[in-house]
Amino acid sequence: MTRTRPSGGRGGRTRPVLAAAAALAALAVTGVLSGFHLPLQPIEPDVTGARSEIASVEPIGIRTFEAPAGLVVEEDLAYGVREDGTLLTLDVCRPADAGSATEDGTDASTGMRPAVVSIHGGSWARGDKANADWRNVCLWLASEGFVAASVNYRLVPAAVFPAQLDDVALAVEWLRDPAQAERFGLDPARIAAFGGSAGGSLAALLGTRGDGALDTGSRVAAVAELSGPVALTGLALDADGASPWLRSIVTDYLGCEPGAAACEAAAEASAATHLDPSDPPMFVAQSDAEAIPLGQQTAFVAAADAAGVTVQSLVVPGSAHSIGILDAAMRARVAAFLHAALGG
After folding, report:
1. CB burial class (10 A; 0-12, 13-18, 19+) of residue 108?
2. Beta carbons of 147 and 185 less than 8 angstroms apart
3. What is the per-residue pLDDT across 102-130, written as a single tens digit (0 to 9) for each?
C-alpha cells in the first residue's frame, strides 16, 4: 500500500501551519475559497475523538478485513474551507492503476472508475476519516475497485445541522469537478455514498435531499448505510421508543429539542422526510438489538417503497453497531449492491 501526504500527517485532524497554507493556496487557485475568513482552523476532536464508533475491542465487522497490496492512499486532501476558516479534508483510497498524474504531468489513468464517498460515524460529535476502522473501510472500498473518498466534516458542538450535511455534499461536488475526476480516474456520473451510524444518516440524506438527475451537483447515484438514524422528529423518536442517549445526541446535533414546535431542523435532518421517486437505489442494514431502534429502518423502508425508491434492507442478529456489522458477509452484500447500482 502506497501513502502520500499532500497536506498533513496520517489521518489526524491537526496539521502544521505551513501545510494549511499550502492547502489554502491550492484551493485559492481553484476558486473554492471565495468568501472565507482567516485564520484557517482544522477540525479538532477531543483526545478520544478519533476513535471508532465500534465499542467492542473484538475483531468484528470491518476489523476482519485485511487490505491487499496495490492500493494507494492520498491523505488530508483539502476539499473546501468554510467561512469560519474551517479546513475540510478527505483521504482518497484507490487501486494503484486508477487516476493520479505522473511526475511528468501525463495522466496515468487506465479507465474511469465509480467512486464512493465514505462518511464516518460518531454521534455527529466525534470520529475521524482515518481512524483504524474507517481507514479499513476506505481500503476495502478501494479493493473492490472503487475510488473511495473518506471525509471529515464539522462536528458537534462547534457546528450543528445542516453544517455536517453541507460539508459532505461539498465533498461530492469536489469529487465531481472535472479536475478531480481526471486526477483520480473516476466517473463523475457514478458517485455513491456509504456511511455508518451518524455517517449513515448523512449518507441517506445525500441520497434523498434534492431531486432530479443523479450525476450533477451533490446528488449521488447510490446509497449504502449501516445503523443510520433516518427519522429524527419527535414523533418518530417517540414511535421508536428511542433511548435517552439517542434523544440527547439528536438534540445536540439539531441544536433544538425534537418535537419542539420551533425545531424545524428535525424534519430537515430526517432522510425519510425527503424521499421521492427521483432518489437513487439504497441499501440499509442494522442489528436487531442495537442502539438505533429497528423501527428507524423498517419505517424508512416502508416509506421508500411507498415513494417508489428501490431499497434493499437487511437485519442481522445481535447488538453490533454500524461498521461493527461490516463483516465478510455484509461486505459482500454491500459491494454487490454498489457494483450493481453503479455499473462497475
Report:
1. middle
2. yes
3. 333 223 444 799 999 999 999 999 999 99
